[in-house]
Amino acid sequence: MNKGALEGLKVIDLTRALAGPFSSMLLADQGATVIKVEAPNGGDGTRKMPPFPPEITDREPYGGYFQSINRNKLSIVIDLKAESGKQVLKRLVKDADVLVENFRTGVMEGLDLSYETLADINPRLVYAAIRGFGDPRTGDSPYSSWPAYDVIAQAMGGMMSVTGLRGGEPLKVGPGVGDLIPGTLAAFGIMAAIFHANKTGEGQFLDVAMYDAVLSFSERIVPQYAYTGQVPSTEGNAHPSLCPFGVFACKDGWVSIACPGDNFWAILCKTMDREDMITDERYVHNWTRVEHMEEVIHIVTAWTTQYTKAELKQLLGGKIPFGPVHDAQDLFNDDHVKARNMLVEVEHPGADKPYAITNTPIHMTKTQGGVHTRAPLLGEHTDAVLAEAGFSESEIAQLRQDGAIE
Predict the structure, then answer these.
(1) Domains in the chain, ordered, with CATH?
(2) Candidates 44, 79, 150, 179; catalytic one
């Protein structure tokens, strides 16, 4: 079995919820050995989050949410508040390449497990932190002690300010991008730091603030304000500087059409039987269409509402940038998703059948990563991981008797 390009990379994963586990999942998908360290008495709280197979009524051992972002990982249970538990982690760190955590500022310092402490044990260690507002080591935010969730990052990072119906209230993006974006950037930062460590032998501390990450992905709002002095606001399904470029209603749902280029615009006009709009000075170029955006959107919508998504796919698919708005059921039935192996079924403990989760979108010709194993049971690999790290059977038994591990 191809284990991926990161085979041999050892990651100690102290994260929970979404941002951190998604980051370490990206590494695990590419073959890294990710050891998920969970606390006693239940572990990562997302184990209890729905959805669950219908035959599971006790929320054990985990739901589909936990499964989807913790596949390919090993789980061990360590009580990091116990002195013997701290010593277990320190021994694991000795030969680790990466440690990643997403606690609030000061938590690891309070446990005597700070970056500085662990770097003394392993100078090559890449220590990654994902926090709401960053870590004081890289810039002391006035909000550094504030807790944060996805919706907070979306709000403060600017993304929410341009999401929503034009002139309406701001809306959060449906998926938890306030977590997913920093998680993705942290994985990139980890790989950059590993590259440096492999050249120099030096590890380092890196952190990604959820606020910063969303701000960096808010794309055009910063240059729009910096260059024009205008504050961008909710944009609906249109684009402030491209037209037509958005979502249009049809008989049985919605489709996306993007024709800012005059060549694509001409094809759309011919398909709509409106060739007069190709040379009309109001619509001839993208910038003139932007000036007459409401008219353009009205005309295109009047045409799309005459057809179903399937009919519009036949008329426009492959000719201009076009796509139907897919719901989850559509994704399961789409030939692209099948051809790209983007959904993969995995065993779910306690269920009568396997269930689908999203596969890696990173396709490689030599070292293809992806989903290889289901998410772990709580503490499923404690003994194996500690034995691999050099703990004897008697040491493991004593640690368990002391309550330091489960």
Answers:
(1) 10-217+340-402 (3.40.50.10540), 245-327 (3.30.1540.10)
(2) 179
